[in-house]
């Protein structure tokens, strides 16, 4: 019987000489590494190109086995400066990224801004650095994340100002305060993850106790008539339609945000306006809008990272009774003043559409409904009796009591 020839099994690779196999693999590796030079990469789509670490020219060599090389690389990374965003970008990022809210927070803690007003007189007792820092920590402990501190009032500053010196011959309001009080306040607040908003009390209005009152009369800087917006005190409005007056306010604001570049915001209130009962049927809204827009633009150019906020009456009352058409002012945030019980619900409805509401400590009976209301983004508290520590303590007590009642 003749033997049948066995059929080869498998691929037959073992029948190929080893030298041919080596030559084939070597040629393939050479072609792959030279693919860019030979134009092969243009033929193969990027998605189909294989990144093989030990032959890819774009692979990153490992330095784990070479301590000297690793140390050199780390030193190089540390030495390479990281590009910092521009002030404009930082401001956009700050406004675009909301503060983190977790499910474990109380409704009060979920408010974006929980602010308390401190009058400019809180700095006039020649407070020491330790007193200022301790004060910040106190308000932090009472649940606030923002201090809105007076820095201006009666047309003079609560810090040394070159603009004041140049315009009137003196550097500040005639009050006792430490030169660095606001620096200490801002520094400690930021350490406590709080913000500081500079409060420009009285805005464009003065009374007879202002250190510039006589000068303003002499220079004819005052709008004719008496502003009796609030009973018990006569106010006089500085005429911002006069270029000299408008420039004074603009220069003050620019100087402030440059002198305190880390301030988070400035806030003006309903004293940035005219009372409707001033003599003459004059529509001042348009001129006030032009003045405010120019002032804000100058401030933003000097320090784009600072927010310009307004705390005023609702838009209808502000425009028709104070010539303050602030919806055209290009402000960053709007808070609605709701210090009166009359019409409170109307004010609340306006506050839902803007950035928050401001109440006094006489309205703490409204606190629970405001805290529970998810449409109210922020709550500011004005100690109308002038005792902010007591106000903060009372609010904290009410918040904690309600939390305990739910358990």
CATH homology superfamily of the largest domain: Aldolase class I
**What is the topology, as strand order, of the major beta sheet?**
1-2-4-7-8-9-10-11
The best one-word shape is globular
Structural class category:
alpha/beta
Look at the structure and give the mean pLDDT.
Answer: 81
How many structural domains does the protein architecture include? 2
Low-confidence stretches: 1-16, 20-25, 29-98
Number of helices: 15
CATH class of the largest domain: Alpha Beta
Number of strands: 11
CA(first)-CA(last) distance: 100 Å
Task: Name the features.
2 domains, alpha/beta, TIM Barrel, 15 helices, eight-stranded parallel beta barrel, 40% helix, disordered N terminus, 407 residues, 11 strands
Show the helix and strand layout.
Blueprint: H1 18-33, H2 35-38, H3 40-43, H4 67-79, H5 87-96, E1 114-118, H6 129-141, E2 146-153, E3 156-157, H7 162-168, H8 181-191, E4 195-200, E5 205-206, H9 213-219, E6 236-237, H10 243-259, E7 265-269, H11 285-302, E8 307-312, H12 315-322, E9 333-337, H13 344-351, E10 356-360, H14 367-372, E11 379-382, H15 388-406
Parallel strand pairs: 1-2, 1-11, 2-4, 4-7, 7-8, 8-9, 9-10, 10-11
Antiparallel strand pairs: 2-3, 5-6
Helix pairs in contact: 6-8, 7-10, 10-11
